[in-house]
Amino acid sequence: MAIAKAERLMNLALCLLGTRRPLSKRELRGSIEAYLEAGSDDAFNRMFERDKDDLRELGLIIETVENLDGETGYLARRDSNRLPPITLDAEEAAALGLAAKVWQQARLAGAASGALQKLRAAGMPEAEDAYEVHSALEPRIPVHEAAFEPLMLACRDRRPVTFDYRKGNAARPEQRQVEPWTLECWRGHWYLAGWDRDRGAERVFRLSRITGRVRSRAGAFTAGVPDVVTVRETVESWAGETATRTALIRLRTGAGYPLRSRAVAVRELGNGWDELEIPYGHGLDAWLVEFGPDVVVQEPADLRADVVDRLRAVAKD
């Protein structure tokens, strides 16, 4: 169905762009096979009006003209639907080239590379690639989760989704109904921010904890989508960026360098252990679990309990 509609829209766009005079509905119906197969005039008229509106939403400028006989015709002038010349300086070209390299490991690699080639063919200057010689410093955004692509498309199209999600302290996943807002990468992990319909509140989900397929659902969003800055701040807060307290932990000597880099105070305890004070915000328990037996939480008690719950959930597997 989707392919048939896309083909029909393409044929209509080619007809409107390829004509030098306005074409009537009758002429368009005789030129496009899908319109010829319409069961009735009413069915054709509804199909044509929807297709015309869809093309206009896609950016095609369609003119409506009435001829001397009073018949309405349609055309899309090429000069009205042509993009202006692309003018990019060397710095802008370098920025686009760098952006394309960032997505090299993701499913967007093909689209980014194709877009870059088209821009170069249109006259974009070749920028000196600073990463060509020092390839070890090439920026990348790793995307290994199967949920990334369907969620990216759902965010773009504003489509609700359902998926099975396992919380860090849960033994089994549970289904979530979400209106996806945006995807954010933080500390090498991807997060989805959106509206959780079952809980009636905004939530953030780590993509690596989504199990099974992401399924799209029909219907519109029921909650408003906040601006980008608000969503980004929500992701950072739930991922642990915003600290409201200080936690006291014991860390094995020679381990946990990311934790040491965030510590506000470090004291040697001897016997192969150090004591660290680190900022404590939402998500710290999940981060500490990643260091396994090299970390022991001393304070606060609720953080220690959360870490223990997560470790027990992992042990049940």
Query: What's the overall geometry?
Result: elongated
Tally of helical runs = 12
Spatial strand arrangement across the major sheet: 7-6-5-4-8
Distance from N terminus to C terminus (CA atoms, Å) equals: 43 Å
Q: Report on the biggest sheet.
A: 5 strands, antiparallel
Uncertain stretches of 5 or more adjacent residues: 130-135
Could you explain the architecture of this structure?
The chain is of the alpha+beta class. Helices cover 39% and strands 25% of the residues. It has twelve helices and twelve strands. It has helices at 2-18, 25-31, 33-36, 41-57, 90-102, 109-121, 130-133, 148-157, 228-239, 257-262, 284-289, 301-316; strands spanning 23-24, 63-66, 72-75, 161-165, 174-186, 189-196, 201-206, 210-216, 243-252, 265-270, 273-281, 295-299. The strands form three sheets. It has a five-stranded antiparallel beta sheet. Helix 1 packs across helix 4. The longest helix is centred in the first third of the chain and has 17 residues, at 2-18. The chain starts with a helix and ends with a helix.
Write a compact overview of the structure shown.
With about 325 residues, the protein is an alpha+beta fold. The protein is built from twelve helices and twelve strands. The strands form three sheets. It has a five-stranded antiparallel beta sheet.
